[in-house]
């Protein structure tokens, strides 16, 4: 009965089963017209949190732009740069597999310790995603200019989620990339105060965010927020505060 339906209807039926892995696996071998749609959901995301999973993927999935890797839309690197995963693990022997992920739109990296890796490592690992990535989720630590250079790799970003950031500035004079911060910005579990903070880092003359969301954020000094609102005055459409704490600010005399 299912195989007699129009392909669009078949695709809708398969989509309703996208969370049922066993059902999708079974359907994928029933008929060729089901295989493509089932694989699109079965391989939509990769969650990698160990060397073992990297090895399993590389052993099971042959590299190539026309292979199963083309179905991946979400690449989730959990534990990256803490030893279990790092550029030294992904490069160079696994680089051909990484570059087979030609349609990745969503990238998650937790944590992302910029000070451990060179900018060349980041470009080698993620530079090929520059024309496809639409959203990122990161937990960054390191120099604020390194963070900006990383974001500049993805000019089509529509959503940026940053959790528990620890950023600092090496010096007053830095080589900052020329790019526009745009789309939706969500900051979670951080503090905005007098020193270097994530909001100040992202507030530049070219900042044009469409929305700002703050969750579990402590605001010790409202000045960075005020500057952000001034810079994004012509582009900002919505603001959302969830469980935010605003301290009484008393500037130094």
Describe the protein's architecture and organization.
The protein is an alpha/beta fold and 253 residues long. The protein folds into 2 domains: 1-42; 44-246, Leucine-rich repeat, LRR (right-handed beta-alpha superhelix) (Alpha-Beta Horseshoe). Helix content is 31%, strand content 25%. It has 10 helices and 10 strands. The protein has helices at 7-16, 21-28, 32-42, 51-60, 87-90, 95-98, 119-126, 144-152, 198-202, 223-231, and strands spanning 45-48, 74-78, 106-113, 135-143, 159-163, 166-168, 182-192, 208-219, 238-242, 245-246. Strands 1, 2, 3, 4, 5, 6, 7, 8, 9 and 10 form a 10-stranded parallel sheet that branches. The chain is elongated, with a radius of gyration of 21 Å. The N and C termini lie far apart (79 Å).
Helix content: 25-40%
How would a crystallographer describe the biggest sheet?
Answer: 10 strands, parallel
Instruction: Tell me the strand percentage band.
Output: 25-35%
Rg, alpha carbons: 21 Å
Order of helices and strands: HHHEHEHHEHEHEEEHEHEE
Query: pLDDT under 50 segments (min length 5)?
Result: none
What's the structural blueprint in terms of helices and strands?
Blueprint: H1 7-16, H2 21-28, H3 32-42, E1 45-48, H4 51-60, E2 74-78, H5 87-90, H6 95-98, E3 106-113, H7 119-126, E4 135-143, H8 144-152, E5 159-163, E6 166-168, E7 182-192, H9 198-202, E8 208-219, H10 223-231, E9 238-242, E10 245-246
Parallel strand pairs: 1-2, 2-3, 3-4, 4-5, 4-6, 5-7, 7-8, 8-9, 8-10
Task: Offer a concise description of the structure.
The chain has helices at 7-16, 21-28, 32-42, 51-60, 87-90, 95-98, 119-126, 144-152, 198-202, 223-231, and strands at 45-48, 74-78, 106-113, 135-143, 159-163, 166-168, 182-192, 208-219, 238-242, 245-246.
